[in-house]
Amino acid sequence: MFDFTYLILAFAGGMWGAAIGGLPSFVLCGILAVVGLAIVLVTGDPTFVNEIAWGPFFGPHIAFTGGVAAAAYAAKVGKLESGKDIITSLMGLNAPDVLLVGGVFGALGYTLNWLISLGPSIGDWPFTMSVPLALIIAGFITRLAFGKTGMLGKVRAGDNRWAVSDVAMWLPWQEKPAMLLLIGIAVALPAARIIQVMPALFTFGFAMPAISLIFLGTGSKFPVTHHIGVLSGFAVLVTGDLWWGVTFGVLGAFVAEWGACLFHNHGDTHLDPPSIAVCIGWTLIAIISTTGLKDVGGIASFIIAVVVSAALYFLTTFMKKGGQKAAA
Length: 328
Prior knowledge:
This protein is mostly helical. The protein has 13 helices and two strands. The protein has helices at residues 4-20, 22-43, 47-53, 60-76, 96-117, 130-146, 177-197, 204-212, 214-217, 226-239, 242-264, 273-288, 299-321; strands at residues 121-122, 125-126. Residues 324-328 have low confidence and may be disordered.
């Protein structure tokens, strides 16, 4: 149910996200999610995790969205060097208009999340995860409102859309197919095991990687993996099988990179690649839940994981090395 009071709270949360910065708000969300999961394990009460971690001051659809939009606006009006800067705490700009833009987009994020939650189900599951889809839609609106590069960005003459360059990158240390495959396995396998034995910790695969992004904010060439953990956990939640978790964790790693190349790298505002991966992966898992594939396990699901991983590796290799050069 839409709550007008919550809308006002989300406006405040969006300003808060702008004040502290998009990435810091996301890290704090991860910390509070871990605390909330501990409370759920001990008491069974999800109030803390729902109202604090995912609530109006730290929910990514509110605080992170506000931080992303405020950074894009600040760059547009010449107060910030880059519209993709989601690390800088914008309170330091001493600009009330920047915080107000964050507030507007925080309220927008809440509204989008509510609207998406009214959507259809696939089997027993929502058709997608509403928070990341709200982030994506708000990101497109931000690009249209404050960016100059259009929805897909502008590819420099001679560059390949699917390969990093000195002017187009998301995580240049996490873009090679081999690195994507290995980090996908490295995160998906333990995350899948955790959810297999403790299903109540479903969002743990998001929370711990989100906390670890504090190192990214300090300048370390740190991996971004919360999308891998979320999809791995959800796949295990639906199928109960470890290897389905690996399949979708690896898929998430590659799809996020594709999303970065398609929307983020060549644009001038942040458009969140992990959110793209989570939305696509969630829908695919929900579809699988309505078919006999959800009961496939053991050596068969292991083979599926190997085949899917190999296909993603070779397809991405072709895209990055054999794809057509794009004109600006």
